[in-house]
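Co-fold these.
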Amino acid sequence: DTAVSQTPKYLVTQMGNDKSIKCEQNLGHDTMYWYKQDSKKFLKIMFSYNNKELIINETVPNRFSPKSPDKAHLNLHINSLELGDSAVYFCASSQGGANQPQHFGDGTRLSIL
Amino acid sequence: KQEVTQIPAALSVPEGENLVLNCSFTDSAIYNLQWFRQDPGKGLTSLLLIQSSQREQTSGRLNASLDKSSGRSTLYIAASQPGDSATYLCAVPYGGSQGNLIFGKGTKLSVKP
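Predicted complex below.
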């Protein structure tokens, strides 16, 4: 059973389009995250969310928005895609926030044409 | 602002050698420090998490140490094997209790048979 699963694994689309990446965790965790790994393999936090609070990294453009239909899901919506959005996006989850290990999905590779 | 640095950026060793990967962080007020492994095209696998009150954690051939006062952690890998080849990342939670991770840029390890 995959603990943190993301779909799709690959996403190729054109500039200006709107797309979503889905994330689901079956670990019963209360906090979920989105990270971006750029072409130089550097990982940066984008969002963290539990049922009480959304924390947004101030460098993330407002074209990116997380949406959580329930505790087990945190989807990432991206509007008006730009070339610079090409990256691998990772979803993660943990129980209790900072004091517990985070479990990562396998990533979604987004390529903008 | 928390910054995490990993040295060296890349390391190549023959099979069977013991090795040490280094991680340093600028702000010692951390909850914990987590070591991850990333295989090419894959997500991150959590290896070890050391709480701020601990000095070290061990899992099989891996031993991670933490010196908060000096802002350093090391990951020791004993009797390295080709299957250990991967990128190793360290990360600390920052910016509140939700645990948004700040990552180093990783050390790419190659273990040659």
